[in-house]
Amino acid sequence: MTQWTEIKISVKSADVDRAGDIANMVVPYGIYIEDYSALEDEVRSIAHVDLIDKELLSKDKKTAYIHIYLEPDSNPAEALAFLSERYTAEGIEHELNTSETAEVDWRNNWKKFFNPTPVGEKLLIRPTWRDDYDAGERAVLNLDPGLAFGTGSHETTKLCLECIETHLKEGASVLDVGCGSGILAIAALLLGAKNAVGVDIDETAVKTAVENAELNNVGDRFTAVCGDLTEKISGKYDLIVANIVADAIISLSDGVKKFMNPDSVYITSGIIDTRGDEVATHLSRDFDIIERFETGGWVCFAAKLKENENEKE
After folding, report:
1. pLDDT over 70 for what percent of the chain?
2. What is the number of alpha carbons within 13 Å of residue 95 lying toward its C-beta?
3. Residue 138 above 70 pLDDT?
């Protein structure tokens, strides 16, 4: 009998809606939420009774629990890293637990789910422990993500990589906001970028990104910064990519203009399709959306500054 993996996420009840949106990014088939904060009011409004089971009354009203279930061939480590990074970036206090194995075991067990993967027309992502691959004419991105998000298997990462391939110009400077394992910035360097900066709020992700850049012999052209969005960033970039959550993209997009050249391309993903139009509306204030990609319930935008915004800059 095949076994699914349950991830149980503990958050404050006040954060459960935002946390649930992020959790739903990991699986396409829904989530199960335990939130007892309004239990008594809801029962009275629906059933008009005061009698509630004592066990339910004793439930913690300040904490909510989100349950997601991963199929047997899914990668639990990537899901855990994705959730932890996104919750940290959103300032959501959280605790993650799996129903089967301690985290230390995932450090090794997850590797069997990560295979050499062609992406787009020019790239092949290769786990460092796998030699059974044929890259053909593709550039090989050697990757050991550790516990940082970004192996190339998640739909949002694939969308970003394909969009980078489409819009990257030879010799471009690149900024990767929420860089995780460094996969997007390193891919851009392998595909012809001159230099790249990756920024992430997670120190482990920053360390992993540096190690992966060295692994791909682009360490001399890659700079990693530990910080929140662009708070520690300076300079101008020809291509800016942000594979983060919708709320963070909306926040980032208000200030990212100052880092862009007149012809720069701004790529955003990590957006669940139910919030695609909301993000598009916000982007459209200052940007012209030149492409919108969708797959598997995810949305990715490529945008450029409006002419009047270029004049302001």
Report:
1. 81
2. 6
3. yes
Q: Output the six-digit token pair for 185.
A: 């910035």
pLDDT given for residue 202 in this prediction: 83
Q: How far apart are CA 247 and CA 238, in angstroms?
A: 24
Label residue 213 by pLDDT band (50, 70, 90): very high
Q: pLDDT per residue over 48-104, tens digit each? A: 334 344 444 445 568 999 988 887 777 788 888 889 888 888 889 999 988 754 444
Q: Are 165 and 123 in contact (CB under 8 A)?
A: yes
Q: Which residues pair with 265 in a beta bridge?
A: 239
14 Cβ partners below 8 Å, 6+ apart? none
Domains of the chain in sequence order: 5-109 (3.30.70.600), 115-312 (3.40.50.150)
Kindly report the CA angle at 191 between 80 and 289, in degrees rounded to 5? 75
pLDDT of residue 181: 87
